[in-house]
Amino acid sequence: MRVNITVNGEARQVDDVWPGESLLYVLRERLGLPGSKNACEQGECGSCTVYMDGTPVCACLVAAGQAEGREVRTVEGLASGDTLDRVQQAFVDAGAVQCGFCTPGLVVAAHDLLTRTPQPSDPEIREALAGNLCRCTGYEKILDAVRMAARS
Amino acid sequence: MEFLRPVSLGEALEMKAARPEAVPIAGGTDVMVELNFDHRRPAALLDLTRVAELAEWSRDDSVVTFGAALPYTRLINELGTDLPGLAIASRTVGSPQIRNRGTVGGNLGAASPAGDTHPVLLASDAVVEVASARGTRSIPASEFYLGVKRNALEPDELITSIRLPKATGPQQFAKVGTRNAMVIAVCSFAISLHPNESRAGAAIGSAAPTPRRVRQAEDFLTEVLDWESPQALPDSAKRRFGELVASAAEPIDDVRGSAAYRKHALAVLARRALGWAWDAYREGERSCA
Q: Where in the numbering of this chain does the FAD-binding PCMH-type domain appear (chain B) (predicted)?
């Protein structure tokens, strides 16, 4: 099956897609975009979070064919050249990264939160990140990073 | 595996008629998990995300009808005022990412006894609209759930929309789980007050082979609630209601909780939710007077 997706602003055509495979597999294995991470494959961990038509989704739960004609923005598409997005920069500055596996999903989820709610309360931050698991940091530095990004 | 991409409801129904074994997929929050884990290899997937009418809604003075593939996030934002109970339950589904994709149609299609929206649909007299190339049917939610993960759909049918009366009184939903997000209900409870009919609907989830209405407990409320001049409910009445709700459950022991715990927790949820809903009703009556 052939699938056409706009990924990070670029029209991409992918051939020989198995109809049961996920958007995550297409991004990582067929388009060479390993930023979105493959962990739970059941929507529990949020590490594969990407924008699809502007809405954050778990790429592991989107069938490749469902992404046909859609616009996908991955963590690779957040920075402008060498300049990190403010959420990425805040994660670096706050030390919100340990092993780093959950980071891309958290960055996309936090990016979406700040787009919708520029000055979120702590409960709003917690709610927005409820679908992203981190097993290293205990979340405190991550919350610091989101607060920092909101101020920047 | 084939990937079928209808762009209209008519086309989707023709495809389902020709390929009844095709598995409908909308948000993918159940179907993709089964594919990712190799638990299921359907001959075809029927993608419903391009069928615009399945994600639309409409309302008149008394009834809201929304498409089976309307994601929870939109339901909460766009219909939460008219359908407060369903909005409360929808907010407990998964995470923001899951609610951006998951749908009530998917909840009904999967027919898991633990599906979050089922108790609200039962308590609020929802009707499930289904269609096939042969025609359409309206199935009351109370007749839709047939067994564990079994529903009243025929193989060539698709769930098209859900129809509910607009709330005419307070509605509540409560669920027990290990945290506030990403939780499959250990047990759940919904209550909808219907002041116009001087009655309340109530239902339980994740505590029997199917979600189910708790009719004895509903009848008890008809006896004890004074809708004309609502008084504070004595604790004894709330407790009795909780006991009747728990007695309607037939839970099992599983990894999420024991049967005994589920019964106990249901009694607590029902007692509290009744208190919240009835207090809100009394408050509303007072401010109207």
A: 1-169
**Partner residue opposite A65 with nearest CB, options B5, B36, B97:** B5
Architecture of the domain made up of B171-288: 2-Layer Sandwich (3.30)
| Contacts (Cβ under 8 Å, ≥6 apart) of A22 | A41, A59, A60, A61, A62, A63, A64, B32, B35, B36
- Kindly state whether A18 is in contact with chain B, defined as any CB-CB distance less than 8 angstroms: yes
Q: Is A53 on the interface with B (CB under 8 A)?
A: no
What pLDDT was estimated at residue B285? 80
Look up residue A16 and give its amino acid: D
For domain A3-77, is the CATH number 3.50.50.60? no
Give the pLDDT confidence of B254-280 residue by residue, as tens digits.
999 999 999 999 999 999 999 999 999
Please report the ipTM that was assigned to this predicted complex.
0.97
pLDDT for the residue B109: 98
Q: Whole-number mean pLDDT of chain A?
A: 97
- Name the CATH superfamily, with its identifier, for domain A86-151: [2Fe-2S]-binding domain (1.10.150.120)
Q: Which residues of A38-53 are buried (b: 16+ CB within 10 A; e: fewer)?
A: bbbbbbbbbbbbbbbe
The residue of chain B with its CA nearest to that of A131 is: B95
The one-letter code for the residue type at B163 is: R
- What is the least distance, in Å, from the CA of B16 to any CA of chain A? 17
Confidence of residue A70 (pLDDT cuts 50, 70, 90): very high
b/e string for B205-229 if b means 16 or more Cβ within 10 A? bbbbebbbbbeebbebbeeebebee
How do residues B73-105 score in pLDDT, each as one tens digit?
A: 999 999 999 999 999 999 999 999 999 999 999
Angstrom distance (rounded) from CA A139 to CA B19: 47
What mean pLDDT, rounded, does chain B reach?
Answer: 97
Q: Which of residues 14-33 of B touch A (CB under 8 A)?
A: 25, 27-29, 31-33
The residues, ordered by sequence, that sit 6+ positions from B140 with a Cβ below 8 Å of its Cβ are B125, B126, B127, B128
Q: In chain B, what residues touch A58 (CB-CB under 8 Å)?
A: 97-98, 101
Domain-wise residue ranges, chain A:
3-77, 86-151
DSSP states of B2-53 as a string? EEE--SSHHHHHHHHHH-TTPEEESS-TTHHHHHHTTS---SEEEE-TT-GG
The one-character DSSP state at B122 is H
Q: Is B280 exposed, middle or buried (0-12, 13-18, 19+ CB in 10 A)?
A: middle
